[in-house]
Amino acid sequence: MSFQNLNSPPLLGGLSEAFLHKLSQAKKIVFFTGAGISAESGIPTFRGQYGLWKKFKPEELANYNAFIRNPELVWEWYNYRKKIINQAKPNDGHLAIAQMQGLFDEVTVVTQNIDNLHRRAGSKNIFELHGNIERNYCIKCHKYYNEDLDFSNGVPKCSCGGLIRPDVVWFGEYLPQDQFEGGETAAIQSDIFFVVGTSAVVYPAANLIHVAKKAGSFIVEVNVEETEISSICDESFLREAGKILPEIVKHLKSFNNKNI
Ligand code: BJW
Ligand code: ZN
Asked: What's the predicted TM-score (pTM) here?
């Protein structure tokens, strides 16, 4: 594995031959992303020093039983995050991923994030493993409510009387099958599999990294610190996604210009 702790410019100086070669040959690439890619947009991550769950216990909030026990509290947490997400803008990392679409045959984003920032940045081919905070549904009849909900009379209810919940995946719940299978196929077919801003501890999402590795993809990690999966990566950048990804786009554009 090649480790790049890129603290001073040039950011991409000293790229491994193997990575340069892969970049020049790759047709299908995947970005598997987590909360860290949105950190530079001002959205707190879950774990780590500034993680959301330093303040809020996950087991009290991100599971179905917690919602049934105390829907007001769970909704308070999601409405708080919704406000932050609504004010946030895609950052240079999201935008660089969207720009890669013109540089490879197929670019797929497989995200654990619920914040919709990849779509807002212009990425087209996206699989959302843990749902999307912009959608809600009734726990009883599964009717969708995607407009702004009215909390003036407490937790909003469906016309059938069921509680409305955010369309996100909580602990103990299955991931949406079509999204997971789409992500899995992309992982298997990828030439390069970028793992960006995730602690890679939540399964089955994190298993896609192992699926890609087993299928022979070249694994590249972009994270501010080492993670559970650093040891299986072929290339690792210990730096912010918003710094590294635009540099890769810059490198690819100058490489393409030289080879026209
Ligand atoms: C930067 C940066 C910058 C910062 N640039 N980088 C034991 C073993 C294996 C599995 C299990 C187990 N026990 C239980 C399980 C299953 C469980 C699980 O995985 N638990 C583990 C935590 C132990 N999984 C589940 O329950 C899943 N379902 C399931 O298994 O179904 C099968 C089943 C069904 C029925 C019965 C039994 C089984 C569902 C998991 C759902 C996860 N949901 C959440 C909440 C979503 C909604 C919401 O957002 O509120 O998803 S939890 C939370 O974690 C969220 C995230 O998507 C997910 C991953 O977090 P992520 O993105 O990695 O964030 P962080 O904060 O952890 O990391 C941020 C990283 O960014 C850090 O590394 C930073 O360094 C880095 N960073 N700034 C680059 N600028
Ligand atoms: Zn209903």
From this structure: 0.94
* Alpha carbon distance 94, 85 (integer Å): 14
- Altogether, the residues listed in the chain come to a count of 260
Q: What is the pLDDT of residues 37-49, one digit of tens each?
A: 999 999 999 887 6
Given a contact cutoff of 8 angstroms between Cβ atoms, the answer to whether 164 and 146 are in contact is: no
- The residues assigned a catalytic role are 130
Query: Which single residue is written with the structure tokens 């030289």?
Result: 258
Return d(Cα 165, Cα 253) in angstroms, integer.
44
Å from CA of 203 to ligand 1 middle: 7
Q: Is the CB of 144 under 6 A from ligand 1?
A: no
Nearest in space to 45 (alpha carbons), one of 242, 53, 100: 53
CB distance 204 to ligand 1 below 6 Å: yes
Domains, the chain = 2-258 (3.40.50.1220)
- Alpha helices (H) along the chain: 17-25, 36-39, 58-61, 64-69, 71-87, 92-99, 117-121, 177-189, 207-214, 241-258
